[in-house]
Amino acid sequence: MKAFHAPLPMAMTLRVLAHLLSYPDAKLRAHLPELRTALHDERALTFGRLAELDALIDRLSDRGQSRRALDIEADYVELFDRGRGTALHLFEHVHGDSRDRGPAMVDLLKTYEAAGLFMGPGELPDYLPVVLEYASTQPAEQARAFLGEVAHILQVVFSALLKRQSAHACVLAALLDLAGEKAQPVPVPPEPEIDESWEEPLAFGGCSTQGQASPGQPQPIQIVKRAAAAAALHNLPGASA
C-alpha cells in the first residue's frame, strides 16, 4: 500500500510571496525580517529556493547596498507597471483588453466571496498578490491545485522576469514549486516600448498637410500597432477556455 503524505503547509509562505510581489513601500520594507523568518519557519520551499528569496529580501531592504528607497520603488514600477509580459494582473495574459476580461473578473470575485473573502477598495481580483492571499486561505491540497490551474500563466511571467534578469523571478519560481511544476523558460512575445503601446494617431493625419488642407485627395488611414498578443492561455478560474 502506498503511503499517504499530506501536503506541506504553505499558507504563510503564500502570504509572504504575495507581499514580496507588492509595492516595496516603507511599510513593507519594515516587515522584511519577519517575512524572512516566516519563510524559513514554514519550510514549504527548498533550501536553494529560500536562499534566492533571502537574496531578494536583502535587495529590497537595501542590506549591504547603497541604493535609496526611491530607487527600489522606481525599479518595481519599471518592472511591473511598464510592460505586459511582467504584468501581475493575470487576466492581462489571458484576455488582454478584450471584453471577456470583465466577466472573468466577476467570476473570480464570486469565487472569493463564496470563500467569505471580500475585496478592498481599489483592488482587482486578478492581481497576483490578491490571488495568493485567497490561495493562502485554502487547505494545502486545494491551494496547490489552484496554483496548478494558473501555472501556465506563472510560467509566462517567470520567463519574462528571467528575460529581464530580475531578482523577482525567484518568487514566481517558488510559486511554481508549490504548484508542483518545474520553473522553466517559455517563449515570451516581444513587447513594444511603453510609448509605442500608448501611441495615438494624429487627428486627421495632421490637418496642415494631409487632412482637410488637401480636399479632393485620397487621405491616408493610420493604423497603430497594438502590443503583441500573449501566448494562448487558458484554464484560469473565470477565464474562457
Helix content: 40-55%
Low-confidence segments, given as residue ranges, are 1-5, 197-241
Beta-strand percent range: under 5%
N- to C-terminal distance: 38 Å
Quickly count the helices. Answer: 12
- The counted number of beta strands is 0
Largest sheet: none
Please tell me how large the radius of gyration is: 21 Å
Structural class given helices, strands, pairing? mainly alpha
Question: What string gives the helices and strands in order?
Answer: HHHHHHHHHHHH
Overall outline:
globular
Overall pLDDT metric: 80
Written account of the structure:
This protein is mostly helical and 241 residues long. It has a domain of 168 residues. The protein has 12 helices and no strands. The N terminus and C terminus are likely disordered.
